[in-house]
Amino acid sequence: MDYAALACFAWTCFAYFVAKKIYRKKPLMIFSPVVTVSVCTIVLMLLLGISYDTYHKYTQGIVFLLTPVTVAFAIPIYENREVIRRQLPILSIAILVGMFVGVASAFLMGNMFHFDSEVTNSLMARSISTPFAVVLASEIHGSASLVSLFTIITGFVGMIFGDLFLAFTRIRFHTANGVALGNAAHGFGTSRAGQRHETEGVMASLTMILAGLFMVIIGPSMVHLVIWLMS
Predict the structure, then answer these.
(1) Residue-wise pLDDT tens digits, 173-191
(2) What one-character-per-residue DSSP string does 19-79 give?
């Protein structure tokens, strides 16, 4: 590992732990580590002339940890398995509908702004957590770097505006709120759902994992279906 790689890795860890400490003292969304670390890192990269691909390459060790972290979400799911078993049929339908809407809206956006096929395919794969999205992107000729970026942006926006949207809909059912946050904002949404209510956190975790599994299994077929229907 060269000095640049070590510096990127060390900065990411340092910035996160400092931001986490600040967030504990000031638990406001604007001080969330996702917000503060992302903004500070982007500013630092611009000042130092570091490209996203370079930073992504140098922090692969952290990115690799996303996979076991995603698996760890299964713990609260197991602890609440009886509740989940009763909700599983309607939950599966909600996830599939959410997947289709995510893929279709990404395809329409790509056509509207005349993106090339690699960008559009990466957008269509971005509606699930990063480890699953990278696998799907490779199967539909997307870009691993782009889909990682799009997934982070999607989760970030969903976490920031999720509370406002749920307040606007006036839905008070914790299961529905958890499914919405997990489906729309993956890991970021799941983290926020857990802060809102235990049930929301559990349902968001389950939704994120099932959505990832469904998308990897039937995602390529769904992408081809969307392209066929909307072309």
Answers:
(1) 888 899 999 888 888 888 8
(2) HHHHHHHS--GGG-HHHHHHHHHHHHHHHHT--HHHHHHHTHHHHHTHHHHHHHTHHHHHH
